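Lab notebook: predicted structure, single chain.

Context: the supervisor wants predicted structures on file for every construct in the current expression panel, including those that have not yet been purified. This is the next one on the list. No modifications to the sequence; it matches the entry in the shared construct table.
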Amino acid sequence: MRANAAVLLLTTACIALAVPGRSTAETAAGPRLPGAAHAPNSVTAPTASVVAPPAVLPSWPVPASGQLHRKLAETRTGPSPKQVAFTPDGTELWVPLLGAVGVDVYRMPTLERIARIPLGTKGGVEVIFNRSGTRAYVSQMHTATVYEIDRAAKRVLRILPTKGTWTKVLELSPDELTLYAANWVSNDISVIDLATATVKAKIPTVRTPRGLVVMPSGTELYVAGFEDGNVVRIDLATGTQTELIKTGGAMRHLTLDESANLLYADDMGRDNVLAFDLAKGTKRVLSLTDSHPNTIALNPSKRFLYVSNRGQNGGDGYYLPGPDWGSVLVIDTATGVIVDALIGGNQTTGLDVSPDGRYLAFTDFLDGRLQLYEIPPDPVLATSTGLRATTYKAELLKVKKTKKK
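Prediction complete. Output recorded below exactly as produced.
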């Protein structure tokens, strides 16, 4: 154990690990949308199952499995939950449904569904909120539009055309007057003036742009390129673009530790997470991941990075279950060590950490499922031996059934 491990009160009480239900998607092979019929309906419980956490946590017992994150609830969603996001006040979870016609809203921490907000006749991809939490913005790739939603009333206020093709990731400028939208097929970024609801510019950029991060200064935008595995910096004043890296993999998501000036990116093609020191101009592989890393999120202290991993593609393509389960890895950003691991379901994709750092939520795309976990305090994770990280891989591969003769 690490030197400070003695400060933890550990117990050997065994808490059984929940094996994911055998119960939808994006790949390096290119953009192909699964039909709702491909979403298995094998999670039996139609309502949320909840275990209330204790009000006070004097210690954090570690079960025999070594998994530190505690499962609190799970529930069925509509088909193909592409992403999940906590509202800024942490009281709700929003889940865009790629295989349905809108976005589901769940109450925390019971995961009771309190609304389904229709987005015309198509589904949603990504959702972001303004800082006050009064507005939500949901991208819809089929129509290349963004839906601006009154968060309290759960009502669409405006539909904002992006003038791109297959709009996915969204990012607000620091002053929240401009919305940036990554257009997967037209290979550009739409710059939308929210006061006038007009596209004031389109910035040609990397092939299949996805992840976006705008710097706190509002002068630079970072873009992840899925097709070529590159990350570029765009000077928003001049339009000049500088390539930070090109791996030939498939960069998917970006997140920023603004206090340390560190940018993180996951490479779905090479199964790793990269860290860029923007002040020093250096880059390194922070950690290897499981197959097909998807979404990444930092906890509030920026000490730990969460990574959802979709798992291997199925034999007939990524839109069908593959040979292993998805997973969520917890990486110590100071050391690159995986300190905890969770087994997900079929194609663990969407992921978010609550603003207060208490909760982790993730979605299983092919299962139509949302899961909620309680996050240990930072000192518990920081002094973890990473026991679960050394054993979980044995459980990723699904059991193969033998044919009866």
